[in-house]
Design brief:
single chain; 239 residues; mainly alpha; 10 helices; 79% helix; globular
């Protein structure tokens, strides 16, 4: 999936660099790739099921598993935490640089920890709750279609000069696809804090900060889980 997106991003400019052409191509890719993933995965499950029912179930489970990023998130976050615990600031900067899209060379220990927590909040929504949401709605095919939308946004949905037109549709579609999961994630973060921390004040703070700051993030979705996390933990996150 990533290879195909990268190929399109590279070769479309050999055809034309006109903004209208790039935007039209971006719309086609943003709609076409998720549809392709849905159709291919659906047909794969149908074919496997025709062979034998358990093979169809196995194919569905295997495809669904690929949409969840819990293990990757844990591994990356644990890597940052481990380096911070050892006092290896330079290594921690490198580790956090693997999960954030910003320059990490000058980050302090506190800034590294804050960036990691922000990533946990956002990735909980994008990489765990959203795929589960779409798995519940439409099984593995719909979850893979969502994964395509999210991958498109992460690769081309930027506001830099290169992607402002080509990635426009991908960014907008990702905003739409994550609207419900982001708000569901925020609520689940606060409810999890209620169970784990058992401090009513933290739960109230989580809802308060979510209501107050959730819409202040440049993204229409990322601010919700980050605000919920900040309020529940009693810390300040920069977004």
């Amino acid at each position: 999936m990533g290879i195909l997106i990268g190929w399109c991003d590279e070769h479309i400019r050999k055809v034309s660099s006109h903004p209208y052409v790039l935007r039209a191509a971006g719309v086609a890719l943003a709609l076409g790739l998720p549809l392709l993933m849905f159709v291919l995965s659906h047909e794969a499950i149908v074919i496997a099921d025709r062979i034998t029912w358990w093979l169809g179930s196995l194919a569905s489970i295997a495809l669904a598993w690929t949409t969840l990023a819990a293990r990757d998130l844990w591994n990356h976050v644990h890597g940052v935490s481990e380096q911070l615990d050892r006092g290896n600031l330079s290594e921690a900067r490198g580790a956090v640089g693997m999960i954030v899209g910003r320059d990490t060379e000058q980050l302090s220990q506190e800034e590294i920890a804050r960036a990691t927590i922000e990533t946990i909040a956002e990735s909980t929504s994008d990489g765990i709750i959203a795929p589960l949401f779409y798995l519940a709605l439409g099984g593995a095919p719909l979850a893979l279609a969502y994964k395509a939308v999210n991958t498109l946004d992460s690769m081309v949905g930027h506001k830099d000069e290169r992607h402002i037109d080509f990635g426009w549709a991908s960014a907008r579609l990702d905003d739409l696809a994550n609207w419900i999961p982001a708000r569901l994630s925020a609520a689940l973060i606060i409810l999890t804090a209620a169970v784990v921390m058992r401090e009513p004040i933290r739960v109230r703070a989580g809802w308060h900060v979510l209501w107050r700051d959730g819409s202040k993030h440049p993204s229409p979705n990322s601010g919700r889980p980050e605000a919920a996390m900040a309020g529940s933990l009693g810390i300040q996150l920069g977004g």
